Amino acid sequence: MVEHYKPVKYKAWELTLEERFKEYYPPLSEREACLEANRCLYCYDAPCMVACPTHIDIPTFIKKIATGNVKGSARAILESNLLGATCARVCPVEELCEGSCVLGVDHKPIMIGRLQRYATDHARQHNMTFFSQGEPNGFKIAIIGAGPAGLSCAGELSKLGFSVTCFEKSKLAGGLDTYGIVVFREPVEVSLSEVKAIEELGATIKTGVSVGTDITVADLLSNYDALFVAIGLGAVPQMGIPGEDLHGVVDGLDFISQTKTSPLREIKFGRRVAVVGAGNTAIDCATIVRRLGAERVMMIYRRSEAEMPCYHFEYEFALREGVSFMFLTQPIEVFGEGSVAGLKCMRMDLGLPDASGRRSPVPIAGSEFLLPCDMVIKAIGQEKHVHMLDELAKFGVSATSKGYIEVDDVTKRTANPKIFAGGDCIRSKGEASTVMAVQDGKLAAKAIFQQFVLGTAGRAPVLPAARGLHKHG
Amino acid sequence: MANLEINFCGIKSPNPFWLASAPPTNSAYQVQKAFEQGWGGAVWKTVGAPVLNVCNRYGTMDYRGSKVIGLNNVELISDRSLEVNLKEIRETKRNFPNHAVIVSVMVESTKDAWQQIVRQVEDTGADGLELNFGCPHGMSERGMGSAMGQVPEYTQMVTEWVMASATKPVIVKLTPNVTDIVQPARAAVAGGASALSLINTINSVMGVDLDTFEISPNIGGKGGHGGYAGPAVKPIALHLVSSVASNPEIQRSGVPISGIGGIETWQDALEFILLGSTSVQVCTAVMHWGFRIVEDMIDGLSNWMDDKGFKSIHELVGKSVRRISSFGDFDLGFQTVARVDHQKCIQCNLCYIACNDSAHQCIDLKDLKLTGVANERLWPVVREEDCAGCDLCSKVCPVDDCITMVEVNTGRPHITWNELVKSTPEVLEWDKMEEYRRRAKIKIH
Q1: For the structural domain made of A140-234+383-467, what CATH number should be given?
Q2: Residue A464 scores a pLDDT above 50
Q3: What is the average pLDDT across A375-402?
């Protein structure tokens, strides 16, 4: 993320636990927002808009901040992205909008993410609503999963007059926005207020309902006209090494979700912590546990810096937080009696590129060593929802060899014309992110509208505004 | 280092930077502090008739996050007593004998009142007087200030009264709130003025509060016109200064000009000097930033003069005045076209939309494949044969020297409008004009 106006002086030792978990970037003041908005060139055919997976009209929303029309700005954002407040905080803006800003050529790109947060915060703080439920069109849609893809689809469908019901197995809706994003990046209230906004559009969200257990896919298909599958991915997989069941070995996603939903003082953590993995989730776990008070946090990664899957700004953030990195290191055993006492690792070398194109790690014989630690957090990816894929397969939904649901790129329709899917469960290529999930939900909603209301699956998209199907609030 | 000293109709000043008659020159404390920080001269805030001020006195024009692009005021002339002012002027001149101390004056419109104030001011040892014929608010309603300056006959009459008793140089300060500033300027010269200063502030209403519906500045729920100054008025001031400086009658009289209006930097000051000012006066910039700004004004001017090889300010005064011309004398054969440097272009494409929406639709967006990057964005490309040479594109381009206007030879005759209508008067009819255009190879896209 681009440098900010007010420098953040983070000195953990001067802050209380609660202060350490406040949002990392302070909100922009009105003056900061105005100055930054005025720096925007208001490009014609702006590249930031193209780079945004949801194609938010960025120059327009920024211009509106500059003119003091913050209400109009928030509307311009939410028109393209109902989860604009979350995306403002969690989007990898350096890779997307800000990365394409023409000002990046010789000076600083516009802080698009923080301006988007400024506008959407304003709307939330003033309880503004911009859209309303469309005239009922008689079609009923079920959505499995109320994460960003499910919520986006639910909101867009509600605007178009569909009767929408989301089935969410967790206690709260929002998916990873609620449970999986570090609290100093996004407070849980932001995600929950987006959930509330979707409900206010008329969508019903049933939480604590697990499809496959409490209700079957067959039930849904017989009671609803179409199904949107937005089940995301599952738990962190086993590392497949001895000692993995010892007390003190935790699932990284579970660990993050605790910091979102439990009082900070009740969270258990170690003094010397090994985090296995080097993706964005691994970084989140490492920085959280540092902020909780761990003395030493070591990231264990079997390849080198260059192959790390996390965003570079996340890597830099972790370094600033005092996390140390042990590259070319492979954990081979968790040891301890009852609970973790250390991690046995082995040194690696880089060999020839593997199937992912990255140079593959090759163990160095006899290089084993012991790393004393009292907690191991594993963050080495997420499992696929195999049971659900099997269930869907019964209805003709196909999956890729890697276990992602196969969909049409434009319509997000699966091999079954009544089943659509989006979000991380289809993300077989490209980065899994909230903003991509939001766009999937939007595209699926558009395709469902065309297929059921217009009755022409192949027709060019008709914008809802042009049809006057939703009122301007 | 270049010599910045000036001699302004006998008034000597270590540099051309003077404080204008305004709130920064309200007291000995302020003027002496300013001299210590480097100001070469000061025109003391107008002394004369008794007044009472109101609150609030200022309104500002803020633009895209920048404060005080323009400043408007309804403050009156000095509200301190004449006696205190005269005492402090005397003290200031005594402490700073080498600085220019000029006193702005304004009294009711009688010969006795004007001649009395002249005597009182001269008695302080001040170097000269400036007649305030420009204040557009408060005083004008009482028949003073711009009420004087807007009527050339009054300007001449009062100037004559003053000149009859003055022994020191007298500057007449002109109001811009007239149709043709040359008229009062000539009247002042006819009345015997030693010098002219311009511009005073411009009539203005700064704005309306969208919550309270009050006028800015808000004076107890009411508001009215005030005098507008600051960076936003500079182009207007440059025009008026150049109109006066290029007038043959004024030129023959040889009276020097003190340029005023939105000067904030040494560059601004130079532009006024090149268009005929011998000294420049500053107010708004000081009100915004304090007296300290003069340090860079002196330093910047001096460095520029050294770089360009100029030894004294007097070499520069009016150097660009000969270029002030009028539409009828411009060369119709001078042709330029826009060229975009794609090495520098950042593809904001503002030039494209400006040309397309507001000019002559002669920039296209083209896939030039210059970078080898996948999904390369379109580049702006000028169709030179259609380019009208208006220069809008380069003006909206945010990158320095990315779009340049290049002179091209299109074979058009080098003739002025005045010459054309003299030699070919029939071009004033459309069909003949079209014929002429065909002959002259002038294509309107």
Answers
A1: 3.50.50.60
A2: no
A3: 95
List of residues 6+ apart from A27 with CB closer than 8 A: A117, A118, A121
Give yes or no for residue A96 having a pLDDT over 90: yes
Is CATH 3.40.50.720 the classification given to domain B327-439?
no
Determine the distance in angstroms separating the CA of A67 from the nearest CA of chain B, rounded to an integer. 9
Distance, in Å, from the CA atom of A464 to the CA atom of A133, rounded to the nearest integer, reads 12
**What confidence score (pLDDT) does residue B316 get?**
98
Contacts of B353 in chain A (CB under 8 A): 44
Every domain of chain B and the residues it spans: 6-323, 327-439
DSSP A75-99: HHHHHH-TTHHHHHHHS-TTTTHHH
- Would you list the domain boundaries of chain A? 12-125, 140-234+383-467, 249-378
Query: What is the pLDDT confidence band of residue A472, given thresholds at 50, 70 and 90?
Result: very low
The yes-or-no verdict on residue B373 having pLDDT over 90 is no
Chain A residue with the nearest C-alpha to that of B349:
A44
Annotation marks residue B283 as catalytic: no
Question: In chain B, which residue's Cα lies nearest the Cα of A103?
Answer: B346
Residue B346 to residue A35, Cβ atoms within 8 A: no
Rounded CA gap, B231 and B202, in Å?
13
Put simply, the answer to whether A42 touches B350 (Cβ < 8 Å) is yes
Contact A358, A303 (CB under 8 A): yes
- The share of chain B scoring above pLDDT 90, in percent, equals 93
CA dihedral A108, A114, A119, A120 (to 10 degrees): 150
Nearest by CB to A38, which of B65, B352, B365? Answer: B65
Average pLDDT over residues B309-321: 97
Give the pairing of strands A342-353 and A359-363. Answer: antiparallel
CATH of A249-378, one of 3.10.450.50, 3.30.565.10, 3.50.50.60, 3.40.1010.20: 3.50.50.60
Can you tell me the distance from the alpha carbon of A58 to that of A96, in angstroms, rounded to the nearest whole number?
Answer: 12
* Beta carbons of A45 and B378 less than 8 Å apart: yes
| Tally of helices (H runs) and strands (E runs) in chain B | 15, 20
Give the whole-angstrom CA distance, residue B144 versus residue A244: 94
- A50 CA: distance to closest CA in chain B (Å): 10
pLDDT in the model for residue A456: 66
User: Chain B within 8 Å of A44 (Cβ-Cβ)?
Assistant: yes
Question: How big is chain A by its Cα radius of gyration, in Å?
Answer: 23
Q: Do B65 and A44 touch (CB under 8 A)?
A: no
What would the two tokens of residue A24 be? 């990392």
Contacts of A41 in chain B (CB under 8 A): 348, 350, 398
Residues on chain B touching A115 (C-beta within 8 angstroms): none
Give the homologous superfamily in CATH for domain B6-323. Answer: Aldolase class I (3.20.20.70)
Asked if B64 lies within 8 A of A43 by C-beta distance, the reply is no
- A99: nearest Cα among B19, B373, B52, B209: B373
Chain A residue numbers with beta carbons less than 8 Å from the beta carbon of B347 are: 43, 47, 102
What is the assigned CATH class of domain A12-125?
mainly alpha
What tens digit of pLDDT does each residue of B63-90 get?
A: 988 899 999 999 999 999 999 999 999 9
Determine the residue type at B371.
T
Compute the mean pLDDT over every residue in chain A, rounded to the nearest whole number: 92
How many angstroms separate the CA atoms of A187 and A184, rounded? Answer: 7
Task: Count the Cβ atoms, other than its own, within 10 Å of residue A349.
Answer: 13
What distances in angstroms separate CA A42 from CA A46, A59, B65, B342, B353, one per listed residue?
7, 5, 16, 20, 11
Mean pLDDT score, B137-152 = 87
| From B9, B135, B351, B355, active-site residue | B135
Cβ distance of B350 and A44 shorter than 8 Å:
yes
**Residue A330 β-bridge partners:** A346
